């Protein structure tokens, strides 16, 4: 098995390896092995770029945005779930923390069992493999009917246009040449704006941020859960907005970015006042920030990327964007820690 479906299937091996290494580290006391286990998780997360690509390719045009958005919605649910099980009342203790790393084995096992039963992306089957009969069969299985001739004709036209205007096999370097350069720059900048906004700094360190601005630990934990909850809740309305012909992708991106800018400005103002009445305002402004991210960059960026590249260029385009996304995420996260240490007005983060 190869293609989008095969890629999604085989990447689950990385989760099993990671869970085994973390468990080994815990029960043998050789804790540096955890770093190797987390490395495998990092590779796995990078390869999940296949998910929005697959969802976009199997979806009818009129609901493509909503289908691809399920990827982001489930990410937000996963973040909230992780915040909950990481609480001291659940698995966030010195004795139980390894079980947190074992949880991903469950969905990975389900994927291994279920992915062989689902069709391959018809776009991949036709445009990459050149298998017309196989693509027709995949499309019929996805739609649950044999009346797919109109949609298949559109798919075949896309394949013909793709082969007429470019080579069958697009290399990474080709995405920086004239025919692709503008699209590549647009999507890379979208990924940079998504991560340089600092969303993962908020998600990673929100509890410590709230404690640094004056909340006690219990209030900070509650505020962190509120952020996770609002992250999920704010993604849901986008299902009705992203495929709306009067709104669509670009306005959501613009409005979301404006909301993030305003929220950060208000957050900075609220954290630089000594008035105790204001100490809960950072919670409000961080929630505003997360809501703005959820309706804009968080929902739109990956969908937009999958739509503006042809099928034979989409995989490499998403590879570049995955590197941009996670590379920038790492830089911002580590930079935040250094700023915390070097700034005298804000105490550094400490493990608790």
Overview of this protein structure:
This protein is mainly alpha-helical and 352 residues long. The chain is built from 18 helices and no strands. The chain has helices at 3-10, 12-28, 33-47, 50-58, 64-85, 98-102, 105-114, 122-128, 132-143, 149-165, 178-196, 199-212, 217-235, 238-241, 249-271, 281-295, 297-308, 311-342. The protein starts with a helix and ends in a 10-residue tail after the last helix. Residues 1-352 form the Major facilitator superfamily (MFS) profile domain.
Brief summary of the model shown:
The chain is mostly helical and 352 residues long.
**CATH A-level architecture of the largest domain:** Up-down Bundle
Radius of gyration: 22 Å
Helix percent reads over 70%
* Overall mean confidence score, pLDDT: 87
Integer tally of domains = 2
CATH superfamily of the largest domain: MFS general substrate transporter like domains
| Helix-strand string | HHHHHHHHHHHHHHHHHH
C-alpha termini separation: 45 Å
**Helix segment count?**
18
Structural class: mainly alpha
Relative strand content? under 5%
Question: Which fold does the CATH topology of the largest domain refer to?
Answer: Growth Hormone, Chain: A
Number of strand segments: 0
């Amino acid at each position: 098995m190869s293609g989008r479906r095969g890629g999604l299937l085989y990447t689950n091996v990385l989760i099993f390896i990671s869970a085994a290494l973390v468990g080994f580290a815990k029960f043998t006391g050789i804790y540096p092995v955890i770093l190797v286990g987390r490395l495998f998780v990092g590779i796995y997360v990078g390869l999940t770029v296949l998910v929005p690509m697959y969802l976009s390719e199997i979806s009818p045009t009129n609901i493509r945005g909503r289908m691809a958005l399920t990827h982001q919605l489930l990410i937000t649910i996963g973040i909230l779930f992780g915040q909950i099980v990481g609480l001291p009342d659940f698995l966030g203790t010195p004795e139980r923390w390894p079980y947190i790393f074992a949880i991903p084995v469950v969905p990975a096992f389900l994927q291994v069992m279920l992915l062989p039963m689902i069709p391959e992306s018809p776009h991949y089957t036709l445009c990459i493999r050149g298998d017309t009969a196989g693509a027709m069969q995949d499309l019929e299985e996805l739609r649950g009917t044999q009346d797919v001739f109109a949609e298949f004709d559109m798919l075949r036209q896309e394949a013909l246009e793709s082969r007429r205007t470019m080579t069958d096999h697009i290399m990474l370097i080709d995405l920086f040449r004239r025919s692709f350069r503008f699209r590549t720059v647009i999507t890379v900048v979208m990924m940079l704006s998504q991560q340089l906004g600092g969303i993962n700094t908020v998600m990673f360190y929100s509890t410590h941020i709230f404690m640094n601005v004056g909340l006690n630990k219990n209030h900070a934990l509650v505020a962190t859960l509120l952020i996770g909850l609002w992250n999920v809740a704010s993604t849901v309305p986008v299902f009705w907005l992203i495929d709306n012909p009067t709104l669509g992708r670009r306005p959501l991106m613009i409005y979301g970015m404006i909301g993030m800018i305003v929220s950060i400005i208000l957050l900075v103002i609220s954290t630089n006042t000594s008035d105790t009445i204001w100490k809960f305002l950072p919670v409000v402004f961080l929630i505003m920030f997360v809501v703005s991210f959820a309706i804009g960059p968080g929902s739109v960026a990956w969908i937009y990327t999958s739509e503006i590249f042809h099928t034979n260029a989409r995989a490499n385009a998403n590879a570049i964007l995955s590197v941009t996304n996670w590379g920038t995420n790492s830089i911002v996260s580590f930079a935040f820690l250094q700023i915390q240490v070097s700034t005298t007005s804000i105490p550094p983060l400490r493990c608790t």
